[in-house]
Q: What sequence folds into this?
């Protein structure tokens, strides 16, 4: 009887899982992100500026140095040019004059038209940054249950990002 009981007990012990001795955890995380960016324009008006410098220079008779004249609600300041003479004839002189015409103010609701994500026209300001809208085109992304990632490029101003992360933890 002992000879028969020993193999039977041994078979039961071998068939029992060894819980607590080995813990296995497995996870798969997949993601895809498809982005079609919108159109935008960032425009900054610049102001009118005038600067003059020099030596041995004077304002001509019945004249003035250059000066800015005030603009209106929709126009920029303008330059009223001056008239200059040499102060001491025959002596060395230097003269420098710079002028930047400022931007006029565009009426509200004008300046930018966007059609189908494309910026058709924009304000003509001194500092303008324009980005056309994205065009989805053939933009696509798929991830199969087997973790196979497929990304297809789209048109202008689009992006596709995909990832598959597999974790196996054995404790």
A:
């Amino acid at each position: 009887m002992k000879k028969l009981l020993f193999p039977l007990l041994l078979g039961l012990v071998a068939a029992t899982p060894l819980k607590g001795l080995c813990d296995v955890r497995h996870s798969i995380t997949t993601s895809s992100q498809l982005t079609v960016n919108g159109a935008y324009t960032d425009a900054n008006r610049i102001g009118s500026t005038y600067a003059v410098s020099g030596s041995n220079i004077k304002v001509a008779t019945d004249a003035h140095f250059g000066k800015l004249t005030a603009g209106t609600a929709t126009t920029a300041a303008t330059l009223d040019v001056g008239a200059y003479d040499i102060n001491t004839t025959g002596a060395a002189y230097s003269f420098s004059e710079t002028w930047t015409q400022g931007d006029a103010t565009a009426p509200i609701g004008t300046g930018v038209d966007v059609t189908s994500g494309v910026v058709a026209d924009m304000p003509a300001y001194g500092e303008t940054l324009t980005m056309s809208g994205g065009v989805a085109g053939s933009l696509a992304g798929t991830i199969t249950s087997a973790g196979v990632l497929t990304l297809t490029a789209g048109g202008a101003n689009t992006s596709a990002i995909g990832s598959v992360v597999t974790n196996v933890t054995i404790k």
